[in-house]
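Work package 3, deliverable 3.1, input record:
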Amino acid sequence: MRNPRRRGLTALATIASLASMSVLATACGSDEDDSKSDGKVSITVEGWRPGDEQGTIDAVKKQAEAFMKEHPGVKVEPIEWEWNAETFSTQLAGDQLPTTFRVPFTDTKGLAERKQIADVTEYVNALPYAEDFNPSVLAAAQGTDGKIYGLPTDVYGVGLHYNRDLFEQAGLDPDSPPTTWDEVQSDAKAIADKTGKAGYVQMSTNNTGGWMLTTLTYALGGRMESEDGTTASIDNDATAEGLQMLHDMRWTDDSMGKNTSYEWGPINEAFAAGKIGMYMSGSDVYNALVTTNQIDPDSYGLAVLPLADSPDAGILGGGSVAAVSAKASPEEQEAAVQWNDFYRESKNYDTDAAVADAKVLKENDQPIGTPTLPIFDEDTWQSVQDAIAPYVNVPRDQMTSFTDGVFDQTLIPEPAAHTQEVYGILDSVVQKVLTDENADIDALLADANEQAQGLLG
Amino acid sequence: MTALLARLPRRVGSSIGPIVFLLPMLLVFGLFSWWPIVRSFVMSVQQTNLVTPAEYVGLDNFRAVLDDPLLTTAVQNTAWFAVLALVIGYPVPLMLAVIMSDVRRARGLYSLLAYLPVVVPPAVAVLLWRFFYDAEPTGVFNTILGWVGLGPVPWLEDPSWAMPSLVLEATWAAAGGTVIIYLAALVSVPPELYDAAEVDGAGIIAKVWHVTLPHLRGIMLITLILQIIGTSQVFLEPYLFTDGGPDNATLTVLLLVYNYAFANTTGGDYGKATALSLMLAGALAVLSIVYFRVTRRWSE
């Protein structure tokens, strides 16, 4: 005997369970987003960073429309995306990346070797400037097999970013940033003492600790690996000297603030918010400081990194390669390379394209003229700079230390083998020095060197 | 015959009904729980990056994990988290529940307050607490401590402070659920026992000790093992708060599994990750069996 009310409930529950199953089924099936709807090749592309302002988003979308007018057979969808050491391989494994995305120079070879990104040699060679790349830049986009796995679209050298307001408040001259590491240390102390803000901060987590310790090591004349990437040399004098300096700033001068766990995004945020006097990052970080962190342009200053008096001292140079998913079809791969040419690369080569790009950026109030380094030869770079000069809207006169000085500095590529893994090992070293006053620097470096050597084989 | 025919549809109906009801659960469980378990057994003896074909490597992954110096660190840290969680996190909900069950007025309000943190999405809670844990003297907690002349405490910025800070947040986040379980169990304690104890001259502490706790023993043993299993698998707090730092001071076993699988930006080592997961699962299974054997007598 069933009472009618209960039967009603049973029916309802059955319907609900069937409905939930069909939802599940659609959820599983929705991935089959056919890339050739109405005969078009459809790709998703890296568009803007999480948190970017509307102007950035509008500018990308406008460019996508312009591209689709030129390539009627292709449908481009820019999406929100940013490379992050923590999430990248999860997205890669889960097939959640856009069709084309930028990865750091350090990762192209490893990804290519594991067949995680597509060989696009054929499509890159079809571009008008294929022969004109600076060979050392193109090398960053090549696999160990010599094939090309993407377009190297932006090159940076690390610079010293500083807050002009804090310099003034500390009684320092914002037009003469420090030129030696001793000055960095004394300026940092002045800022901390006078303003209560952190004078100098260095990234320490998510592989950025290793990235920046390597930068500091280069500036002091050391290396982390042999040039061929077979021997680790982490326990060198320059690295020890750099760590000792960090230790003294943190524990003796108390000029680094109490929060030491920073990586790329958070340190930009803290800097733009006026909490940090100086920090090292890529020369092009000003773009993100504007579009993501809304920095006050008047407060911004960019200087060349102080270099030690050593023939081996130089600045770390890196960049991004616009790579293409290995799972994309040949048509999608070709379309992706064409998009990267249109949106990211031709403006570095062709003055008309550079002006067209600057116009779109200007319309949307986006930064134009942030310092970069040449991807092709220096003349090409200079002609592009001249072409966009009328559109420049970033405070170039607050960046002269960098723009005047960087071409006299040696640009040193990042460690050749297992770069991000070695950076991960170095993260721990930096964290230890910044959080433990009694850290034994030599022992830490010896241990890190052994771990790194284990990776290099 | 007619009786049989009359009964037939009902029988068919009653046997299809349960299956229809079970289907979604079987499907979801099978797809999202059992299938991954089977896959992880397979992957633990393979070298695979999920793109190129997998290669059988025997027990190499297990050996590599056991040779990793970080494994010892991770096991020690996880044990430390479990101990701290036991010392801080285990008695707190019990005390809260006993006190709340004694409150006569607005009991619902207190239950709500205790349970509210459980409703806050964990990632949001961690981000909020990261803000509280600002190590500068101007941070929220350090300001409060400053009022009574304490601190500033380096919360997440010091290897020895980081883990207790994580446990504090985890306790805050999880206590509500356990409080509800205890409250439900406390209702089952017959009020006559308290009256009888009172007649015998028992005070509050004596009543709790002689009446309440013995009645909660079964539940307490269950929540204890659940807590140990839960804390052995702690991941969210170290991942979101400190990413295992500073200097691996909060690297836990599960975070190590995650790092094996996903922290390498050129593709993960899923073999090592699944191998360590299986070892953790095995250790927890053994622990549970031993625990129930040992405590069987007490809980009867």
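Chain A has a mean pLDDT of 89.
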